[in-house]
Specification:
about 240 residues; alpha+beta; 4-stranded antiparallel beta sheet; 3-stranded antiparallel beta sheet; 4 helices; about 20% strand
Length: about 240
């Protein structure tokens, strides 16, 4: 017998709530700090999740990237890098809380670079605008939402750093969720309505990802950098 939909929703929302609390504590403790390697920061966040919630499992690889490494999409594995004093960094974690996955990403800016601070602010603004577009269109497809996120990014002067802008979420990793890959992601080829049920008859719930990049070789932007913002789209 399947899990009741209300129970699923509460589980997913509660998992995200714990991820929010985790990242607020990461910021409060200053765990993303200059002079520390990305892998060490990742381990610190992992240990904090265990300390706060007893979390020992993460359904996808833990990601902390800084500086030029923030340009790389999820599937890449750039070499470990020490975070600089005037850097930008992001963390993308998938902690499992009571068997429900969270998928949560936030960006941290060290120093006073106005371009990096503007990018961080635009991440949340574009996420909110993407959510409004989803809410306003009952029949929205993955392709239409991707196009809107791309439009919003370009309007703000940024590029998109990944091949998708989100994915299905549930009790299990989205790599194994139903159907063809395009059906499970917010991508240009996904012409299916996002509001639908999966093969098991469960309502589909979605994560929205915003990965903005600034590829600039001049003084203002350094050698290029990016930022990342990710959380539940249709819940919470």
């Amino acid at each position: 017998m399947g899990v009741d939909e209300d129970v699923r929703v509460r589980g997913l929302v509660a998992a995200q709530g714990k991820a929010v609390a985790l990242f607020e504590e990461v910021e409060r403790r200053g765990l993303v700090a200059a002079g520390v390697g990305e892998r060490e920061v990742s381990d610190r966040i992992r240990d904090l999740a265990n300390e706060m919630f007893g979390t020992t499992k993460h359904w996808h690889k833990r990601i902390v990237r800084s500086g030029p490494n923030t340009l790389f999409p999820y599937r890449e594995n750039p070499p470990d890098r020490v975070i600089g004093a005037d850097d930008i960094a992001f963390a993308d974690f998938g902690p499992i809380f009571e068997e429900y996955e969270a998928d949560f990403g936030r960006t941290f800016v060290l120093g006073d670079d106005p371009v990096k601070h503007r990018l961080r602010e635009d991440l949340a603004a574009i996420f909110a605008a993407g959510r409004r577009a989803f809410e306003a269109d009952p029949d929205i497809t993955g392709a239409r939402l991707y196009a809107e996120v791309a439009r919003l990014a370009a309007e703000a002067g940024w590029g998109l750093g990944g091949w998708h802008a989100g994915h299905l979420v549930g009790e299990f990793p989205h790599e194994t969720i139903d159907g063809a890959k395009t059906d499970s992601y917010v991508v240009p080829d996904n012409v299916h309505p996002m509001r639908r049920t999966d093969r098991a008859g469960r309502r589909c719930h979605w994560i929205l990802e915003v990965h903005l990049v600034h590829e600039h070789d001049g003084v203002e932007g350094g050698g290029g950098f990016g930022g990342f913002y990710e959380q539940l789209l249709d819940l919470g």
